[in-house]
């Protein structure tokens, strides 16, 4: 759409939200607007039933952070290629472990992967392509030198020498 | 006669060594050492392709083998104090010894 002589299809409305490839820093999903973007951090608490009729909790472990985003791109006569590009990019990034950075209002969230996406089609969004996406954090584990000794790989030292001692 | 078996200073390792007793008998000994999350060291020992002990905790100057199959025994010894072996002190503070004069009861 041309507004005041400017092609609005080339404008990224939601400058607060950027979905970029973690390696190349190129924008991978370019929407007209990101209507909502929710960050969720969660953990799981393990529990087991006891003979007292209540559940005892004994441990908690962190789950990967999740970001739910909903992006919109208007279907115009001149942006079929942009809509197809988003569809293809969604399929590509959902099919493998591609790392994605997401710039939100609350900051840059690094190392996420597209877990799932949904394209609902209804009368309400007839003229737009609406995409609901779920990104999941790829946790960075501790470096090798910080591992517990028990977790180190077993080293096969082969045949070793034995020598007399006093 | 005491022989020292050389180790690497790594937490988990497997090794093979050839041991001779005083009578000239020859043993092929495979030793697997593993460090547990609590820091304790356990060993699995195979003599002539026969598993003699599958999991024994390594303590200072305590024999690792329950039998006299080697005409002696294998044990760790702390050369400075009286502590149980830790992989960071292998070959220096903690020596793995094959002692041909050691006999079980």
Tell me the helix content of chain A.
Answer: under 10%
Indicate the radius of gyration of chain A in whole angstroms: 24 Å
Q: Rg of chain B, please?
A: 13 Å
Count of all domains of chain A: 1
CATH class of chain A: Mainly Beta
Strand order, largest beta sheet of chain B: 2-3-4-5
What's the arrangement of strands in the largest beta sheet of chain A?
A: 4-3-9-10-11-8-5
Most extensive chain-chain interface: A-B, 18 and 28 residues
Query: What is the number of beta strands of chain A?
Result: 13
Low-confidence runs of chain A (pLDDT<50, min 5 residues)?
none
Indicate the percent of residues in helices of chain B: under 10%
In whole angstroms, the N-to-C terminal distance of chain B is 19 Å
What percentage of the residues of chain A does DSSP assign to strands (E)?
A: over 45%
Mean pLDDT of chain A: 84
In short:
The complex is a heterodimer of chains A (166) and B (105). With 166 residues, chain A is mainly beta.
How would you portray this structure in words?
The complex is a heterodimer of chains A (166) and B (105). Chain A has 166 residues and is mainly beta. Chain A has a single domain (2-41, 64-140), classed as Elongation Factor Tu (Ef-tu), domain 3 (Beta Barrel), CATH 2.40.30. Chain A has one helix at residues 80-95; strands at residues 2-3, 6-7, 18-21, 27-29, 33-40, 43-49, 55-62, 66-74, 100-104, 107-118, 128-137, 155-159, 162-165. In chain A, the strands form three sheets. A seven-stranded antiparallel β-sheet of chain A has the order 4-3-9-10-11-8-5, with helices on one face. Chain A has a two-stranded antiparallel sheet with strand order 1-2. Chain A is elongated. The two termini of chain B are 19 Å apart. In chain B, 30% of the residues are buried. The model of chain B has no long low-confidence stretch (mean pLDDT 92). Chain B has 105 residues and is mostly beta strands. Chain B is globular and about 35 Å long. Chain B has no helices and seven strands. Chain A binds chain B through residues 148-150, 152-166, and chain B through 1-8, 10-19, 32, 34-37, 39, 87, 95, 97-98. β12 of chain A pairs parallel with β2 of chain B.
